[in-house]
Design goal:
The chain is mostly helical. The protein has two domains: 156 residues; 29 residues. It has four helices and no strands. The protein is rod-shaped and about 195 Å long. 8% of the residues are buried.
Length: 226
């Protein structure tokens, strides 16, 4: 029976206080501890009820034995008053037997009463500890959720610092590389103009020069005609 009390002390002093440092889900574990404690208390309550019933039974037996002792005392007196000393002696002998039984029952009863009080006190302690555990449970759950949230944010920020940021920098470098490649291709194109390209430009210039000369000539003729 006392293993329940030791178990309670272990939960409160060790497991409950170090719960957040374990791999288990604190919320689920806290609920399970509460359920375990409630089960232990139910078992202890049943034991206390049995002990109280045993105490009452012993008390009844003791009262009956004590009543028989008193009855035999009265019967012995009556026998002496009636002048029957032999009967009085036998009654007193039985009275002594009843007294011895009553004394034994009284000792058992005192021990039962003491044990009942101890169990009741232990049960009160368990209920007080359960109440404290229930009060701590909500607080520990909230702290656990806060810790999980902080860890998640830190992991996210860490991912941004090493993953997304480095990827962003790679894309920036790629754009710069593409721009450099485009500029290089322009320079290369300028350096690699074909002869046909140069002649085409020359032909275009000659055509413009011819048209310009034709216009000048026409203007000159018009002035002469005036």
């Amino acid at each position: 029976m006392f293993r329940f009390f030791n178990r309670v002390r272990t939960i409160v002093s060790s497991e409950l206080n170090s719960l957040l440092n374990k791999a288990e889900d604190p919320g689920k574990m806290l609920d399970q501890f509460i359920l375990d404690m409630e089960k232990d208390i139910s078992e202890v309550e049943a034991s206390v009820a049995k002990q109280i019933a045993n105490e009452k039974m012993l008390n009844k037996q003791y009262e009956e034995a004590a009543a028989m002792v008193a009855k035999r005392e009265e019967q012995a007196v009556k026998a002496l008053e009636a002048g029957d000393e032999g009967l009085a002696r036998r009654v007193l002998e039985d009275k002594n037997k009843q007294q011895s039984q009553a004394d034994s029952l009284k000792q058992l009863l005192d021990e039962a009463v003491k044990l009942s009080e101890e169990l009741k006190e232990k049960l009160r302690e368990m209920k007080d500890e359960l109440k404290e555990m229930r009060m701590k449970k909500d607080s520990l759950k909230a702290r656990s959720e806060s810790a999980k949230a902080r860890a998640k944010v830190n992991r996210t920020l860490s991912g941004i610092g090493t993953g997304a940021k480095s990827g962003f920098e790679r894309m920036e470098e790629k754009v710069l590389g593409d721009e450099a490649a485009a500029e290089a291709s322009e320079e290369l194109r300028s350096e690699n103009k074909t002869l046909d390209d140069e002649l085409a430009v020359l032909d275009q210039s000659s055509s413009v020069d011819s048209e310009l000369a034709a216009l000048k000539a026409k203007l000159g003729q018009d002035k002469k005609a005036e």
